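Readers outside the structure-tokenisation community will struggle with the description of the input data as it stands. What matters is that the chain and its backbone geometry are given together, residue for residue. For illustration, here is how one protein appears when written out as sequence plus structure tokens:

…
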Amino acid sequence: MVAVAQDGEVLMAAAWVRMMVWALAGLIVLPYAVLAFSAFAQQWRYPALLPARWSTQAWSALTGGGALLDAAMRSLLIALVVSILSVASALLTSKALATARQRQRLHALALLPFFVSPVVIGLSLQQLFLLLGLDNSVLAVLLAQGFIAYAYAVLLLNALWSPSLLAMGDTAAGLGARPSDIWFRVWLPAGAGLIGMALFQTFAMSWFDYALARVLGGGRVMTLPTRVFEALSAGDVRIASVGSLLLVLPPAAAFLIGRRLVAALPIAGVPR
């Protein structure tokens, strides 16, 4: 009888866990479902749970060279440049810091950009860009985003340079390998998983950025997040929903694909 009661309690607990998981999944999916309904709705009035009419008219903003498509392509270009350059620079910096005497103090400097609001950073850099003639330009937005992404990548790639990985490089050098061979045949393959993670994170930081693009772009550099907020301010919920889905879907797809790829790649210092 005791065993039967215990089995019943286990089954009940498992049922509650399943219910909680489904409820949590529903809460996560619900906002995206509302966005999808809004993007395809032609008429959706309160208190109706579903739109009365459906239409793909809002998606025409992505065809025929619309402003939303231009903003998405601009955001994509900026995010790709920021992620590649910041991670490449952070690789060199983190490698230099790995053997520096004041390693911990120097790494603490990389935390400084995260103690200040992006708006404050943007306003501070705006004065510099005004003097350099870079105000309200794509280059200003790219440099500001790259400044923060670079610091983040340095912190993330700090974990790459474990003693064992550095020892592998020393061994290869002792066998006559050139510095380029050590980078491309030893260090980069060994840290491919962490480097891929850094590329994705810095891409996402730039892709979702609004504050720096708004402050330093001055309304002339329209990225996808600024277009979404512009549509919301104008009361165009359907265009804002399309833009929001466009903001979410590519990074989500990249994350799912990258997760499979990174799982198959080694991460230096992390046992499989």
Observations:
- The first helix runs from residue 2 to 40.
- The beta strands are 41-43, 53-54.
- The longest strand covers residues 41-43.
- The chain is about 70% helix and 0% strand.
